[in-house]
Amino acid sequence: MENFVAPSSVSDYFLAESRERGEVLTNLKLQKLLYYAQAWHLALHDKPLFDEEFQAWVHGPVLPSQYGRFRQFQWKPITSDVNRPADLKDETERFLSEIVDVFGSETAVSLELMTHRERPWLDARGSLPPDAQSTNVIPKTSMQEFYRALGAY
Question: What's the whole-number mean pLDDT along residues 120-132?
Answer without folding.
Answer: 96
